[in-house]
């Protein structure tokens, strides 16, 4: 037996990344069950990318307004919460929209989380939440335990 202390996450919140996909909705349901069982706050995060970031991936940027991307992400987040919880949301639920690449942002947010929950696959595209690659990156780099939920 070792006397070396085990490093544990510093936060008490359950963090879940959503992108509107069925996989992320199931991850949200599971995260809510865990948060309730552990009497922990639940924080739901949706990430969106500035259209300029697509220039490096696709070689061009159509005429798109960054505020429209943010509005789409906000709308997706509200629709996801409505579909999963209806009008009865968990008491300790909070939400945030973050601008940038989902994997990088969620890894950073995991520093102060008890657990991070994500879907096995996402929708990809405009919201930048390709959870197949995101979930893989999170399992490798997150600072807390990661639960990848399959549908």
Summarize the structure in words:
Residues 12-150 form the UspA domain. It holds the Pfam family Usp. Belongs to the universal stress protein A family. This is Universal stress protein. It comes from Kocuria sediminis. With 151 residues, this protein is of the alpha/beta class. It has one domain (13-149): HUPs (Rossmann fold, 3-Layer(aba) Sandwich). Helices cover 40% and strands 20% of the residues. The chain contains five helices and five strands; from the N terminus they run E-H-E-H-H-E-H-E-H-E. Strands 3-2-1-4-5 form a five-stranded parallel beta sheet, with helices on both faces. The chain is globular, with a radius of gyration of 16 Å. It starts with 12 loop residues before the first strand and ends with a strand.
Give me the secondary-structure category: alpha/beta
The CATH H-level superfamily is HUPs
- Overall mean confidence score, pLDDT: 85
Helix content: 40-55%
Distance between the termini: 39 Å
| Total discrete domains | 1
DSSP strand content: 15-25%
Protein name: Universal stress protein
Family: Belongs to the universal stress protein A family.
InterPro entries: Rossmann-like_a/b/a_fold (IPR014729), Universal_stress_UspA (IPR006015), UspA (IPR006016)
Which labels suit this protein?
Rossmann-like_a/b/a_fold; 151 residues; five-stranded parallel beta sheet; 5 helices; alpha/beta; Rossmann fold; Universal stress protein
